[in-house]
Amino acid sequence: LALVVAAMTEVTLELAGSPLRAVFPVHSRYDATWHDSVGWFITNSVLESSVPEPRAAADAVKEAVRLGSWPLEDILRPWDGMPEAPGMFAISWLDLRRLPVRVDATGLEAQYVGATIRTDGVMLWFILDESGLHLRCRYPDTVEARRHVGGWLDLLIARLQARARESVGGQIRLGDRSYRVQRAGRSDVPAIVGLLSDEQTPCDGAELARYEEAYDAVARDPSHYLAVVRDEVGRIVGTMQLTIVPGLFRGGATRLLVEGIRVASSERSRGIGTAMLAWAHDHGRNRGATLAQIAVDASDERARMFGTRLGYGSTQVGLERTL
Questions:
Q1: What is the 3 state secondary structure string of the chain?
Q2: How far apart are CA 12 and CA 15, in angstroms?
Q3: Are residues 157 and 173 in the same domain?
Q4: Cβ atoms < 10 Å from Cβ of 143
């Protein structure tokens, strides 16, 4: 939440030259008297964030939580009291990972349904689940709102996606070298194809279009993670596709399938492949996988030896045919 508020603060300062100011739903009863009560004690508090740094944003959220214990009318009195008509800018946060039950929203193809209403305000809903952070928004359908609110949202989304790609969890350190694992973007497709074919020659138009179509299909499915590994100057030096496969096979085990793991010829024998696979194992464990499998061609002896050295065994034989 602090990271998101920091990003919203940064975008608001950049576009409007003013701090982020919004109302923010918080719990409002913390006294011991209410500990055994049943109900949903919640109110809209006031959130103000002027420093686009996570720690400062976290402090602003904590202040909003504390303010939630005070009557909102008292808080808003210096600004002419409670608003009589809509017009507020409101932010809501829902962490579905903290529910007492797990809802497979992806498998159920669940959709969030909202009413179409006339509004003078802006409402943001941030929803966090196992597949990531999602954003819903409601604002007036006017030319001015589409330009200003829409532009603010576009920049916010781009900023959050950039932060996610730069996350510390994606770092690989080998001696004095540092690499970063990121989810591949569409613009990375030519470099990935070059690694898969072990060539540096670019694809022609028709071939590239076919690969981009395949990329779009992979990117739409949250069970897939198409990864690229970048060196210190941003050059792509590795790739792999990770897929989480639930099933009844192997006693109902969820599997991590690793395919297309490649390292640029100039970077081989430095331990990058081993570090990439260790990163992939963590990726799988964090998503409930208890078994990892690497897909290799029968003729690729180098890949087979690589997997064997890292503890993979040939426990089954795969067959394939053209459809």
A1: CHHHHHHHHHHHHHHHCCCEEEEEEEECCCCHHHCCCCCCCEEEEEEEECCCCHHHHHHHHHHHHHHCCCCHHHHHHHHCCCCCCCCCEEEEEEEHHHCCCCCCCCCCCCCCCCCCCCCCCEEEEEEEECCEEEEEEECCCCHHHHHHHHHHHHHHHHHHHHHHHCCHHHEEEECCEEEEEEECCHHHHHHHHHHHCCCCCCCCHHHHHHHHHHHHHHHHCCCEEEEEEECCCCCEEEEEEEEEECCCHHHHCCEEEEEEEEECHHHCCCCHHHHHHHHHHHHHHCCCCCEEEECCCCCCHHHHHHHHHCCCCCCCCCCCCCC
A2: 5
A3: no
A4: 8
**Per-residue pLDDT for 45 more than 70?**
yes
Please give the average per-residue pLDDT across 54-81, as a whole number.
86
Residue whose token pair is 């004690």: 41
Compute the distance between CA of residue 42 and CA of residue 157 in angstroms, rounded to an integer.
28
Supply the range of the domain harboring residue 77: 2-165
Give yes or no: residues 184 and 218 share one domain. Answer: yes
N-terminal to C-terminal alpha carbon distance within the chain: 47
State yes or no: pLDDT of 201 exceeds 60.
no
pLDDT tens-digit series, residues 247-290:
888 788 899 999 999 999 888 888 999 999 999 999 998 888 99
Beta carbons within 10 angstroms of residue 192's beta carbon: 22
Closest CA to 242 of 200, 286, 211, 202: 286
Q: Please tell me the least confidently modeled range out of 29-38, 185-194, 218-227, 240-249.
A: 29-38
Does residue 127 or residue 101 have the better pLDDT? Answer: 127
CATH number, position 292: 3.40.630.30
Task: Name the domain count of the chain.
Answer: 2
N residues, the chain: 323
Cα 297 versus chain centre, distance: 32
The amino acid sitting at 6 is A
